[in-house]
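Researcher: Please predict.
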Amino acid sequence: MEAQPTDPHPSPFGPIVRAAMVGTAAGLRSVTPPAVVYRNAKGPLPAILAVMAAGELIADKLPQTPARTFLPALIFRAVTAGISGREVAVRNDGNAAAGIAVAAIAALASTYAGFGLRMYLTEATALPDFVIATLEDGFTLLLAYGADAAP
């Protein structure tokens, strides 16, 4: 049996790390991770998710938007994280159940961490919330695309 060549540039992002990344992103913006992960799916799903993600990015900056820690929002974040975490784990030869669990837990943790950090940075820097929220959008996109990048 011939040995397989070793990848000279192996990815440091295994399936569980990728699930944690996409879950962390879902804790910050709930619809962005599935929009990124399913962007190449067949049918209308990618377009629907893209519109929902764009709407979320706008709604997040409005003062009347409920807090991300509001129970229904928290549950939705865990669900979208689990769905996205399962997908990135399976695509990278990982365990589906582990991807779901890790992503959902990461989403719950990052929901509270992101909320606290955003409040702290708004006060500590005197920057408008809009600026901090936009930086958070960028970080969310980096996490989601990083989790979904080719191995």
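Model: Residues 1-9 have pLDDT under 50 and may be disordered.
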